Amino acid sequence: MAKQVKSAITPTRSEDYPEWYQQVIKASGLAERSPVRGCMVIKPWGYALWENIVQVLDRMFKHTGVRNAYFPLFIPLSFLEREAEHVEGYAKECAVVSHHRLEKSAEGGLVPAGRLTEPLIVRPTSETIIGDSFSKWISSYRDLPLLINQWANVVRWEMRTRMFLRTSEFLWQEGHTAHATEKEAIERTALMLDVYRRLVEDHLAIPVIKGRKSAAERFPGAVDTMTIEAMMQDRKALQAGTSHFLGQNFAKASDIRFQTAEESEQYAWTTSWGLSTRVIGGVIMTHGDDDGIILPPRVASAHVVLMPIIRKEKDRPLVMDYVDRLSQALSTRTYNDRPLGVEVDARDIGGARGWDWIKKGIPLRVEIGPRDIAEDSVFVAMRNKPHRDRQSIPRERFIDTVTDLLEEIQDHLLERARAFRDDHLHDVDEKATFYDFFTPDNPEQPEIHGGFARSHWCGSPDCEEKIKEDLGVTIRCIPFDRPDKNGPCICCDGNSQGRVIFTKAY
What we know:
Elements: H1 17-28, E1 31-33, E2 40-42, H2 44-63, E3 67-68, E4 74-76, H3 77-81, H4 84-90, E5 95-104, E6 110-122, H5 127-137, E7 146-155, E8 169-179, H6 182-203, E9 209-212, E10 224-231, E11 237-247, H7 249-254, E12 257-259, E13 265-267, E14 269-276, H8 278-287, E15 304-308, H9 316-331, E16 334-335, E17 338-339, E18 342-344, H10 352-360, E19 364-368, H11 370-374, E20 377-382, E21 390-394, H12 395-423, E22 425-427, H13 431-437, E23 452-456, H14 461-471, E24 474-479, E25 487-488, E26 495-496, E27 499-503
Helix pairs in contact: 2-6
């Protein structure tokens, strides 16, 4: 009988994937539940991860000419009502402010008072209020294109929440642009989607499929929604970023008009695009193992932890001096356009110290004791390898090659995730096989099924809805690179112009 391998996280992924996810967040110190239902407190280790993602993405945005601004948290109800499809899409998720003060009741408690003339919506997204500003800022073709982004929080009153993946309040960025021509707006929509693709694949090490949403899955009020879709280890999809071509719909609703070079008046063509803290959930579910999260080095909260090994008090000065000098030397290095993040953990808590950093997912753990110092070397473990797999490296060589080790981890995480995705991405052509594909492998793990089915769809919303009702499966995207090959629809046998990606999703 094989010996059971001890893991730091209970339950394991195979035992209870949803609970494993929650326990990884708790063990890593990324976040915790707040007193407000459906919200979370992002702790320093988790917020450092988000800050690094923000820095990378903000730099990418600015390279494309985008500038940052900030707009109000509150949106007048009348603004949201201007775009009918938009308000319908968000109506059930809106938090509404109807009063502007509190007063003491006869019983001594506090009650709302001072009813507002017009209710205010706590922004679920900002197209309408930013459109109002755009209508004031734009009057001529010379004012275009207008390329604006804001880093903000938004509120969507979710009934079922899960930290990072779906919370009532979350952090994100939302970009909004206005253009003189339809062609420019469509090109910007595609450009920003590729920015997201580069962030998620090149920095978060999560492989994605690029495509567009079906009409049923499209952003409310958009003409077209482009998306990147990633596969998590339970084989469900995570929508990792979206970019929307809004046509002239929001421009007409917000009266964003400009005078053309020919002196005629026209409505602007607009776009919007957003990515949120849910990508942190994607990092956990793509790379995590039964010992906790594994942080991709390019965005990791820190890169290296130095752990002095002091068994005799007389060795403390020698070891700590060596560790401090190594920390200073490493801190002068840069990786992915930021200083190398070095932690020193001198706590005397035995083996629990190493497990703490394993669960936090730090890429490199370095132990240093008197024996290592005598050999002028360090004892290094890489988080993407088994925790007992460690190697002794001469100090100077470690300093010189530390960024190479980090890149080795980064590359391995992407390769491993892509191999997993490809192993669970299948062409499915028979209806019975399709339904079996989405039958759980284990009744005790009902959410884990075959993965992504690449199947033909006739384009009918009725077929799309039928599959959703029967299986809880949706069309995640119509891939950009799908072959133009006819085939029978997986639902009705009607003619299809190509395959789409069906799966369950977060």
